Amino acid sequence: MFLGEDILVWLVLAFGGAMCVGNVLAIVKPPQKVAEGSLSRAPRSRSLAMAAVGFVAALWSLLSLIS
User: How far apart are CA 16 and CA 53, in angstroms?
Assistant: First the structure.
């Protein structure tokens, strides 16, 4: 099979991890320069919800790879 049998699980791990880390960093370290029309900081509740979804996806894929 092209790129291995577990390619979907690896992709979910990569996207879930990036989603979790990116949203947490958006809360912890907001941008210093804000473009006109942009928010000065990320919405906390939405970012935490998306970080949780990314964490669950990454955890699921990691457990699928281990078992």
Answer: 7
Contacts of 7 (CB under 8 A, 6+ apart): 1
The structure tokens 């949780």 sit at 52
Q: What is the pTM of this model?
A: 0.83
In sequence order, which ranges of 3-43 are alpha helices (DSSP H)? 7-28
Question: What does the block give as tokens for 2?
Answer: 């092209």
How many other CB atoms are found less than 10 A from the CB of residue 39?
10
Q: What does the pLDDT look like over 10-51, one tens digit per residue?
A: 999 999 999 999 999 999 988 888 888 887 888 899 999 999
Q: Do the beta carbons of residue 61 and residue 9 sit within 8 Å?
A: yes
